[in-house]
Design brief:
- This protein is an alpha/beta fold.
- Helices cover 38% and strands 15% of the residues.
- It contains six helices and seven strands.
- A seven-stranded parallel sheet has the order 3-2-1-4-5-6-7, with helices on both faces.
- Helix 2 links the parallel strand 2 (33-38) and strand 3 (56-59).
């Protein structure tokens, strides 16, 4: 077992699958106790039960401020405090803007951007009196280099990037805030992008210098770094982990 997060108490949203699950597993392996929050309460509970250190799990919708506050307060009580937060909950919706409904637009913005705000607002009071407190928000390479047909998703993730910078300025020097911009990661949320030829072409990997999908564990490794003391002089940063998508 590693020790980079020894004794830390970390909240992870979207923890039942994908990047969130990978973060929860790696953080626990590095010595942290983890609170796993997700709309999929059973999935969050199953993941928390399998972690090497005692943790906590709760079913919660990040767009519900009252439910989020209750879940964060309960997590802080169960863990003793909160030193770190990873905002990983997210949804994606693709399609031309001419066909996008206002309900779809609002759902993407509400979960990805407003959800990050709601969870951060509820968690920050629990972090102010802890040492080495850190927040990592998950945006997307779409925030840096959007593609056609991703207007709602790109807008929401661009907002997450800007919110991260604003919080870094507001919460310094007590709480560090950084942002991760993943590229094409092999998660359940992105499963629809791996279309069979009869359903249309898959995402062209020649847009990515490394010519492959990323793994959730590769994103988790950078998030754990940003949560740890190794990143003690890093705040307000945006880290693109995208296989070279945004420069290629």
């Amino acid at each position: 077992m590693g020790a980079r997060l020894e004794g830390r108490r970390i909240v992870v949203t979207g923890a039942a699958s994908g990047i969130g699950a990978a973060v929860a597993r790696l953080a626990a392996a590095e010595g942290a106790r983890v609170a796993c929050l997700d709309r999929d309460g059973a999935g969050a509970a199953a993941l928390a039960t399998g972690l090497p250190l005692p943790g906590y799990s709760e079913q919660v919708d990040v767009t519900d401020p009252d439910a989020v506050k209750r879940a964060i307060d309960a997590a802080a009580k169960a863990l003793g405090a909160i030193d770190g937060l990873v905002n990983s909950a997210g949804v994606v919706a693709l399609g031309p803007i001419s066909e996008m409904t206002i309900d779809t637009w609002r759902k993407v913005i509400d979960v990805n951007l407003t959800g990050t705000f709601i969870v951060s607002q509820a968690t920050i009071p629990h972090m102010r009196n802890t040492l080495d407190a850190a927040i990592v928000n998950i945006a997307s390479a779409q925030a840096l280099m959007p593609i056609a047909g991703a207007s709602a998703y790109a807008a929401s993730k661009g907002g997450v990037q800007s919110l991260s910078k604003a919080l870094a300025a507001e919460l310094a020097p007590d709480i560090r805030v950084n942002c991760i911009c993943p590229g094409l990661i092999d998660t359940p949320m992105n499963a629809g992008l791996k279309k069979a030829p009869e359903d249309g072409p898959p995402v062209p990997l020649d847009r990515y210098a490394l010519r492959r999908w990323g793994k959730p564990e590769e994103i988790a490794a950078s998030i754990v770094y940003l949560l740890s003391k190794d990143a003690s002089y890093v705040t307000g940063a945006t880290l693109a982990i995208d296989g070279g998508r945004t420069f290629h």
